[in-house]
Each structure stands twice: as structure tokens, then as C-alpha cells.
């Protein structure tokens, strides 16, 4: 991928890609997935090493990055939260400068978004945001890939996010409006997306032709929609707020009744799920659920991303 426009670039936010780059990356991911499913195994990055620096637990992100890197011919080194102590045992800029000497690309899962920006500032290799408190841009790539597979071209589609205006919601909103989709969010007052994120989403919507709608009623958001999406009410790092959040979000659940309000809506969830809170188990396993393809697509989307930045 010597000619890739993303070569050598970090990916910390969906805003780091313009809409052409985002659509091209999704197309590339879809092509790679098709080749992979046809049994074609290219190994263009033999000898390259991905470093995973994680401050929080993970099933999908860690595994899909490691497997994607293996498919590309490279290897990975996983550094758990306890080992590195980023920002505590060792300064973030020191960590960045040291690991840049070992790795060809870094994937970092952090608490404050500023940690991943500081890593990228001081690293001499590309840094990929594998989730921060502010964004989860790799998740948004897999999400749009899944919407495209199930529903066709993105422009003009509508998506309703039922739940907290969290990292997943922000990245997904940016990606949707950038590609000409309508992004609706239904959350209780006080749990909408942060104001700076809303401003960024509105600016992207102007450029991409999409739109943002914020409401408090899940039924209003779900009516006539093409895609229903949810995530946990309490994100990693917010555990002390769990009881308060359980009360605030009661009723913000994707159940069959909500699915029936949509326009043959497909259902997505980034996982892990808390069944009986934000989604019912039945819906997650029902005929409208694209959740398991979505989880698989993390691997295909990240394989494309790694291939382009390397
Ligand atoms: N969706 C997602 O990022 O899952 P993990 O936290 O398991 O990586
Ligand atoms: N919003 C969730 C997403 C987990 C993939 C969290 O940050 O914990």
C-alpha cells in the first residue's frame, strides 16, 4: 500500500479521515473481506510488528487487531494495563518514544482521549485509537461496513442510537453524518453527547450532507429508521455511576416493540452487552440482528486500516 493516502498517519478520531478517505477505506475493507473469504491470503507486511498498549480490558478489539495483523503477515505484542502503567509508572511521552523503537504501528486503548493524542504526538510510528473515553473510531469503521453490507449504500440511510452519548456514539455520529446518513440519538437529558463533539458532528454534517437529531424519546428516534444501535449505559471507567445510570436509562431498551417501529431496521450493538438493560437477548439473536457480522467486521475493517497505515 505504498500509494495509500493513510500511510504513516495516525487514526485517533473519525475526523482524521475526510469523507473520501472514509468511503475508500470501507471499500478497501470490503474488497479485502471478499478476497479473504475466497481463501486468498496476502501477507504484505511480513516482519512488521503491532504494539497493543491497553489501559482497559477488551475482547473484540485486542483479538481482532492481533488476528488482522497475523493475516497481514505481521505479529503483535500485547501490553496489559498492569505492565505499562502509562502516565503512572512512566510518562506517556516516554512510553511513546520507547515503543516507537520496537513497533511499526501502535494501537492504544486509554482513559482520557488526551493520552492517545499525546502518544501520537511523541511516537514516530502511526498510533490507532483502540477506544478512548472520547471516541471509538475503529468500531465506527466496522459499524458502517456492516450497515453497507446489510442495507446498501450509506447515503440517505438513517440510524438511531438508543443510549448514552458516549465514545461509541460520538465516533458513529461523526462517521454517519460524514457519509450522508441521518444520525438520531435518544438519551435522557444530561446524557447527550458532549457539546464539543456535537459541534464537530454538525460541522461534518455540513460537509458530508448528513444530519444529527437529538431526542429523549427512544420511540421517536426508532420510528421509520433503517438501523437501530445501542451500547452499555455505563462505560469502562464510569463504574461508580452505575446505579444512577441504571435509573436514568430505564426504558431505553431495544426490544422487539422498538424494532417493529423501524423500517425493517437492522440492529447493531458494539458489545459487550448487558441483556435486559440496553437490549433484549431475543433481539440480539433475532433475524434483524447484524451484531455478529458487526463483531466479525472489526477484524476486516482493522486489517484494511493496518494495511493502509503501514
Ligand atoms: N466493541 C469493543 O470494542 O469490544 P471490546 O471492548 O471487547 O474490545
Ligand atoms: N462505551 C463502551 C464501549 C465498549 C466497547 C465503553 O467505553 O466501555
**Do you know the CATH architecture of the largest domain?**
3-Layer(aba) Sandwich
The beta-strand count equals 9
| Alpha-carbon distance between the two ends | 8 Å
Category by helix and strand content: alpha/beta
What portion of the residues fall into strands of 2 or more residues? 5-15%
What is the C-level CATH assignment of the largest domain? Answer: Alpha Beta
Average pLDDT, to the nearest integer? 97
What is the chains' assembly state? single chain
Q: Helical proportion? A: 40-55%
Instruction: Tell me the domain tally.
Output: 2
Q: Looking across the biggest beta sheet, what order are the strands in? A: 7-6-5-8-9
What letter string, H or E per element, gives the SSE order? HEHEHHEHEHEHEHEHEHHEHH
Largest sheet: 5 strands, parallel
CATH homologous superfamily placement of the largest domain: Aspartate/ornithine carbamoyltransferase
| CATH topology term of the largest domain | Rossmann fold
Bound molecules: phosphoric acid mono(formamide)ester, norvaline
| Count of alpha/pi helices | 13
- Spans of at least 5 consecutive residues whose pLDDT stays below 50 are none
Any descriptors?
five-stranded parallel β-sheet; four-stranded parallel β-sheet; binds phosphoric acid mono(formamide)ester; 9 strands; 2 domains; globular; 14% strand; 44% helix; Rossmann fold; 310 residues; alpha/beta; binds norvaline
Amino acid at each position: 500500500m505504498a500509494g495509500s493516502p493513510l500511510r504513516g498517519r495516525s487514526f485517533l478520531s473519525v475526523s482524521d479521515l475526510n469523507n473520501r478517505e472514509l468511503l475508500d477505506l470501507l471499500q478497501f475493507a470490503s474488497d479485502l473481506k471478499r478476497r479473504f473469504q475466497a481463501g486468498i491470503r496476502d501477507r504484505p507486511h511480513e516482519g512488521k510488528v503491532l504494539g497493543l498498549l491497553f489501559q482497559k480490558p477488551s475482547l473484540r478489539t485486542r483479538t481482532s487487531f492481533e488476528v488482522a495483523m497475523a493475516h497481514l503477515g505481521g505479529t503483535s505484542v500485547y501490553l496489559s494495563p498492569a505492565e505499562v502503567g502509562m502516565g503512572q509508572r512512566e510518562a506517556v511521552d516516554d512510553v511513546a518514544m520507547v515503543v516507537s523503537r520496537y513497533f511499526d504501528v501502535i494501537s492504544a486503548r486509554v482513559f482520557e482521549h488526551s493520552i492517545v493524542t499525546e502518544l501520537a504526538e511523541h511516537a514516530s510510528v502511526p498510533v490507532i485509537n483502540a477506544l478512548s473515553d472520547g471516541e471509538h473510531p475503529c468500531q465506527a469503521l466496522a459499524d458502517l461496513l456492516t450497515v453497507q453490507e446489510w442495507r446498501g449504500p450509506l447515503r440517505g440511510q438513517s440510524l438511531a442510537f438508543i443510549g448514552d452519548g458516549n465514545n461509541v456514539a460520538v465516533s458513529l455520529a461523526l462517521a454517519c453524518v460524514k457519509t450522508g446518513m441521518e444520525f438520531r440519538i435518544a438519551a435522557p437529558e444530561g446524557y447527550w453527547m458532549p457539546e464539543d463533539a456535537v459541534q464537530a458532528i454538525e460541522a461534518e454534517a455540513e460537509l458530508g450532507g448528513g444530519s444529527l437529531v437529538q431526542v429523549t424519546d427512544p420511540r421517536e428516534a426508532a420510528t421509520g429508521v433503517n438501523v437501530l444501535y445501542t451500547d452499555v449505559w455505563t462505560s469502562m471507567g464510569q463504574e461508580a455511576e452505575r446505579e444512577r445510570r441504571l435509573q436514568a436509562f430505564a426504558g431505553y431498551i431495544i426490544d422487539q416493540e422498538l424494532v417493529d417501529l423501524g423500517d425493517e431496521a437492522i440492529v447493531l450493538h458494539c458489545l459487550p452487552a448487558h441483556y435486559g438493560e440496553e437490549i433484549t437477548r431475543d433481539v440480539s439473536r433475532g433475524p434483524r440482528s447484524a451484531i455478529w457480522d458487526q463483531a466479525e467486521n472489526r477484524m476486516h475493517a482493522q486489517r484494511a486500516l493496518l494495511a493502509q497505515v503501514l
